[in-house]
Design goal:
By secondary structure, this protein is an alpha+beta fold. It is built from 3 helices and 6 strands, in the order E-E-E-H-E-E-E-H-H.
């Protein structure tokens, strides 16, 4: 699974996947899902920074590919150490289709 297009807009981040699926992520939600060591305790896996800890006005200012398996965002709060593997990013999609599939499969 790969991305075909990543667009940063004022309210959301839009991703078009290679299978044609479109995902929309609010900036704050995605920033709060960062998996870097500053946001998630490496030993316990417990989240140290969640979406509720992120400023409401946070925005992704830029993005870059990480190999052929992930993307990294530069956030307006200057956080940029985390990257989002495509598989995890796709699982974070909250569209109706993905949420219904989550219930069906589990």
């Amino acid at each position: 699974m790969e991305t075909r297009e990543v667009r940063l807009e004022d309210g959301d981040i839009h991703i078009l996947w290679d299978d044609g699926h479109r995902s929309t992520y609010p900036h704050r939600y995605l920033r709060g899902q960062c998996g870097c060591a500053a946001c998630v305790d490496e030993m316990s896996g417990r989240r140290k920074v969640g979406w509720e800890d992120v400023r409401e006005d946070v925005q992704a200012l830029d993005w870059m590919p990480v190999g052929r398996y992930a993307v990294r965002f530069l956030w307006s709060d200057l956080h940029d150490s985390g990257f989002y593997p495509f598989e995890r990013l796709r699982k974070l999609c909250r569209c109706r289709e993905c949420l219904e599939g989550e219930v069906e499969t589990g």
